[in-house]
Design a protein that fits this description.
By secondary structure, the protein is mainly beta. Helices cover 11% and strands 32% of the residues. The strands form 2 sheets. Strands 6-7-8-9-10-11-13 form a 7-stranded mixed β-sheet. A 6-stranded mixed β-sheet has the order 5-4-3-2-1-12, with no helix packed on it. Helix 2 crosses helix 3. The two termini are 21 Å apart.
Amino acid sequence: MIITYDGVESIKVSHGDFTISLNPISKESKFKLANFGSDVVLITANHPDFNGADTATRQGKEPFVIKGPGEYEVRGVFVRGFSSKTVYDGVERFNTVYTFELDGIRIAYLGAISDKDLDSKAKEEMGDIDIVFVPIGGDDVLGGEDAYKMAMKREPRIIIPIHFGAVGAKDALAKFLKEADATDVKPIDKLTIKKKDLLDKQGDVVVLSSTL
């Protein structure tokens, strides 16, 4: 599995010829967008910073777009969405927290969440998580302290922060790393990982450099 970060909350997760795009930036966003083809697009909140499904189309191939709670299956990959809330860009919105498994690795993607806790159903049904993506920018989404606490409640093997830097939260990453006691962690261009690589990890923080 290969994971890259394209800024704001846009994440690309690939295994072989299968690609999942998480909260791709749309053409209407003020932030730069990345263009790449995807098989599946997961959108957590209806805002131009997150809902760029049109940017994930390549050579006439339309991705399967998921943008709300429920259970889905695409090419043998099972995706579950759970409701949460956020206040983004001054507007209260629904946010969907997703879980899915790819190459034996179970992933939770919290999206643009601002709630400091998940509802009881989500906590009961999410199950064990290997990798969790959590926003850390503050203001419209979780800040460093709350983000780290929420991530650790899932008892993940790896925590990957999103929603920092390009969105104006210049100090967000430093605050998050201090909270996680991980100030020595340096950004990497991509994370290439297999299930066996997770066995000796427990709440490890991985920071991905934005490709934009």
